[in-house]
């Protein structure tokens, strides 16, 4: 029996993925202590111990993230969280005495606490690695498309670098900070809760890691799907005009449609909708996807994998760089269509929906091809296997990096 300390952050998709792994580890007799904000730690079950982070005035909070939040401003938000939590977590490590630390790839504080306490650590990714090897080429492509060049990014980098240096000096770290690592927090052992097909070959982090797939419930997909489902996720879901445009197009199609608008806008903000369109605040996404012909989404990685599991083609309207890169993968894999939010019109959305409806077999075949590559073993089990074996290798003073393999379904 081993004791594992997990660090999450208040994001639904990350929390859900970590819970699946922690529950599996606990079922094997391990002790798992999970840290997140109070509202998320209270959502956990009794399979493991949940503890709340102390409240912090600045740092990661989805309410502080908008479509104008830059890449490095978000990285600074993660660093601010690490600064706020460091002393508390240092004391918690002393109190709990864990054998190993596992943290979300966004939980910078998890990596820094592991370094400070000299404990083996694992980084758990719920998306591809947003490293400089992936993001710099993307930013260059975007600049060439938009022809917009400014110095705000440089200013953000310089401010972030200074804040890093000040914090490292305070806690006694002698090594130089890597500002790109705010987003990836790579360790000697890295687990990706995504399909390998959504990664990027030019990223060295992913080249030495284990891909186990995203932990979704296997839906009972309907043979005859009858509706279109729309959800803009849990963060960038307050654009009333975007919802109105989508709903107008759905009205023209006259196909039964469910639109999940979330909690940031009211149904009255939308106004009158066509009889074939149903507005809901929240809905069980995995359940409704089992009956959906098409899923219109921002392109969050959890939503993409839930669509794959339910064999539902996608129309992706991305907002942030991660979603834009994921949308490119969706088109590359032939499982959907992307539309830039800056170029979105009723005509383009209608054309995309009609194209998919006319070629459902093509998209379904590509989705089934992805499913066929997944392991028969649940992602939570595969991830737990990696964690236990890695800790065993560390415990046996094996200094060689754990040799991870991508596990595919056996014929």
TrEMBL record:
It comes from the Bacteria. Signal peptide: none annotated. GO terms for molecular function: hexosyltransferase activity; UDP-glycosyltransferase activity. Keywords: Glycosyltransferase, Transferase. Residues 246-387 form the Erythromycin biosynthesis protein CIII-like C-terminal domain. The keyword Glycosyltransferase applies. It holds the Pfam family EryCIII-like_C. This is MGT family glycosyltransferase. The lineage of its organism: Bacteria, Pseudomonadati, Bacteroidota, Sphingobacteriia, Sphingobacteriales.
